[in-house]
What does this fold into?
Amino acid sequence: MNPLPFTDPKLLDEIKRFTRTKTIKAGETLIAPGEKVFFVPIVLKGVLRIIRQGLDDKEIFLYHLYPGQTCAMAINCCQADKISAVKAIAEDDTEVLQVPVNLIDDWFKYPEWKMFVNSTYGQRFTELIEVVDLIAFSNMDKQVLHYLKQRGKAAGTKKINITHQQIADELHTHREAISRLLRTMEEKNLVRLGRNTIELL
It folds into this structure.
């Protein structure tokens, strides 16, 4: 099944002629902070995790990209000729379609592409607002549970292979705080802790 949300034969023909696909292994980085962005990735298979990385190298999880979705940050970087402020990491073996930067605006002549880009901005904005709300207005346990549910959804399992340090890094906090919080969540029967694994209950 083709994950691309396009039916216009002219647009599909240009996609076939001017784009290329790239496969990245689980855990590999597709886009790194500080890099020049020369393409917009559309996920064909697998899942990408998008992370914001600050100047101090501390990270915070933003959202996942699933088949048929693209990154609003990458689109913005291409249109504004900026370097990337986010990191895109493959959750599992992932295949993406790479749309060259020079075609992003040119393809706005196709209504389907224009709608795709606009809906991408809208969806990613909604997800970012959720992240901001979690950080600003929620207790840390809600942030951690939201994060774990998103990672579990992306991996297609309730048993997540992850360390407390990884969670701390991506939620911009200390490992000790995460470990204490996870033990409390385990006591509340929200999660089951294992060796480098966390199972959602």
